[in-house]
Design goal:
mainly alpha, 0% strand
Length: 325
């Protein structure tokens, strides 16, 4: 007991000294060690959450469009999710973001959520949910290309993957559903570019620690989406029906809260290649759900485009893994 008291006192003294010296301290609750079997179960559960939940969000967004305009749908989703997560994290001991961190979170939230997710929902007014998921699968390709702007140009394997992936993007735009709706095709081309650039830039911006970064980005991005909805004068045709309301609940609770938490857990415990493997699985899940539940269909050109893009993403990821060793 005496040794434990001395240890706790020393910890409190150290934290007090750091605070007095104007050093920012993030106090997070201690995590009890878990058994290997329990860790494996949690990892598998987290992967399944990313595969199924994030794969299902594309169909949920399409259903939500039955009552909500696109940017209003995304804005409400992320703003509410951020407002739920923020006080929870504050109670857990996370520090509130500083002014500079709020600015950084607003920039990243604007690129990821307004430009990225907002563009996807906007495109789903005309494009099938499976094709929308396939377009977002190109994010790793754009991320590898944008990395060159910050001094890290792709390797040979990555260039091969980029070329293959962009061939798949061209094939995707030749698909009948995309060709008939050029506005949706343009939005779906800009969305992964915005998400990828925001992801790369976020590594160089001042952001809050841990999950507080996600909470701040969702609050800021949600506000930007709602402001864009206001500027565009989006209006609901009437009170939302049960289907879109359930879709909104799914997007808030599972798509924004559960899946983000699972992703953060994986990033801390497994290799990045495994944590980001959802990029390969989500389009397949989204296409399957769209065909099975929403009566969507994918042509042979769309199928070839999906396989080509996923192969390109695989080569880019392989090139990154090799260059990191």
């Amino acid at each position: 007991m005496k040794e434990r008291y001395q240890t706790e006192s020393a910890t409190e003294t150290t934290q007090e000294e750091l605070t007095n010296n104007n050093v920012e301290v993030t106090i997070e609750p201690p995590v009890a060690p878990a058994s290997p079997a329990r860790n494996r179960f949690a990892i598998v559960l987290s992967l399944l959450a990313l595969y199924l939940i994030w794969g299902g969000t594309y169909l949920a967004m399409r259903i939500g469009l039955g009552s909500f305009p696109p940017f209003m749908l995304s804005g409400i989703r992320f703003w509410l999710a951020g407002c739920i997560m923020y006080p929870f994290l504050r109670v857990r001991g996370y520090q509130a973001p500083t002014r500079r961190q709020w600015i950084g979170s607003t920039l990243v939230g604007g690129l990821l959520l307004m430009g990225g997710n907002g563009g996807v929902v906007f495109s789903e007014q005309w494009v099938a949910s499976g094709l929308a998921a396939l377009g977002i699968a190109a994010v790793p390709l754009w991320a590898a290309l944008f990395s060159g702007l910050f001094g890290r140009w792709p390797t040979r394997i990555e260039w091969l993957g980029l070329g293959l992936g962009f061939i798949g993007v061209v094939l995707l735009n030749l698909e009948n559903g995309m060709q008939a709706n050029p506005i949706g095709a343009i939005a779906l081309l800009i969305a992964p570019m915005s998400w990828a650039f925001g992801s790369i830039w976020s590594q160089r911006l001042p952001l809050p620690k841990g999950l507080m970064a996600s909470a701040a980005q969702m609050i800021a991005g949600g506000i930007l989406l709602l402001l864009l909805s206001l500027v565009l004068r989006e209006k609901m045709s009437g009170f939302p029906t049960m289907g879109p309301l359930l879709a909104m609940g799914f997007l808030i609770i599972f798509g924004s809260l559960v899946a983000f938490s699972a992703y953060g857990y994986l990033l801390r415990r497994v290799r990045p290649a495994l944590a980001t493997s959802y990029a390969y699985v989500n389009p397949v899940v989204a296409v399957g759900l769209g065909v099975g539940l929403a009566g969507e269909h994918i042509t042979s050109i769309g199928l070839v485009a999906m396989l080509t893009i996923l192969a390109g993403v695989g080569l880019v990821s392989m090139g990154r893994e090799r260059s990191s060793h």
